[in-house]
Amino acid sequence: MYLLIFISTFVALPKRRIRFFFTMIKNSHCKRFTDCNACLKASRGIFTFNQFNQGQHFPADKCTQNCILFLLKGELLINSQEYPGTTLREGDFILQAIGSKIEILALTDVEYIQYWFNELPAICQTRHDEIMDNAEEPNYYVPLVVSQQLDTFLTCLKEYLLEGMPCGLFIEMKAKELIFLLTGYYPLAQISTFFFPISTYTESFHYFVMSNYKLVKNVEEFAHRGGYNVTTFRRLFRNMYGVPVYEWILNKKREGIFDDLVNTKERINEISARYGFDSASHFAHFCKASFGDTPRALRNRAQKTKSLEE
User: Fold this and answer.
1) Which range has the worst mean pLDDT, 11-15, 93-97, 273-277?
2) Which of 93, 115, 263, 283 makes the best surface tag, with the fewest CB within 10 Å?
3) What is the Cα Rg of the chain in Å?
4) Which 3 state secondary structure label does DSSP give 13?
């Protein structure tokens, strides 16, 4: 009875009032009423939405994070070690690992989403281990194609990014949802190959760092030795190791010096020279600031401790 009264009343309304009624309903369900920009948990740069005109060119540069690129519209020419001279078309996506070099040219007007990360979000450890254990380098890499589930996800994500959604907790959940879709809806062999470059580049960069950090005197020399510009090297290093490169080198130097002083019989002046100190006083000052005592005192204390233990 009440429903019939409501319908008859509604039909009797002027068209202008009806349009206003539906506009209110639409706006109340489609408009976001919270502003996350001032929140301490705001996050930017994990997902980025990009629009570029035909002819836009990005010269080859090294990725300072792992990146998955999802092409939503148009055609992109990609040039990298994994995808040399490869044309991406709408619905294709690729991964470029941290430390890899990529060049991009928009063959048409394009839209694409990029997901930037250092480590994959933890979803299912069993599936993660299975993927990494089966990862093998293919003869050549082929872009993957967006599945129906992934297409729905990307469509919604684009709308959120256009709104300027910076909520860190929300973005974290979307990143986990993305990895769930990639690891859960693509065959093991296919997704293992897709993620293979991450381990390769990580191991390669780590090997470079461990092989060269004792041979350099500063960050600039370290970067140039690896063929990086200093800014890229600093960002790449911090993303991979979690600390600034200078701080990491300093900690490694402290570890090495302390180990040489207490566990070897190498002369103190030889240790000082090998680690790049230009004088005995400079070396003594460094040891006092780092370990609380002079090199000689540290060695004597270690020898006494060993004698007591024997």
Assistant:
1) 11-15
2) 263
3) 28
4) coil
What is the CATH architecture of 47-199? Sandwich (2.60)
Is the CATH number 3.40.50 carried by domain 247-309? no
**How sure is the predictor about 113, in pLDDT bands with cuts at 50, 70 and 90?**
very high
Ranges of each domain in the chain: 47-199, 247-309
Give the side-chain half-sphere CA count within 13 A for 69: 26
Question: Which residue type, as a one-letter code, is found at position 199?
Answer: S
| pTM, entire model | 0.72
CA distance 41 to 156: 21
Would the CATH topology of 47-199 be identical to that of 247-309?
no
List Cβ<8 Å contacts ≥24 apart for 287-295: 287/257, 287/261, 290/254, 290/257, 290/258, 291/254, 291/258, 295/261, 295/268, 295/271
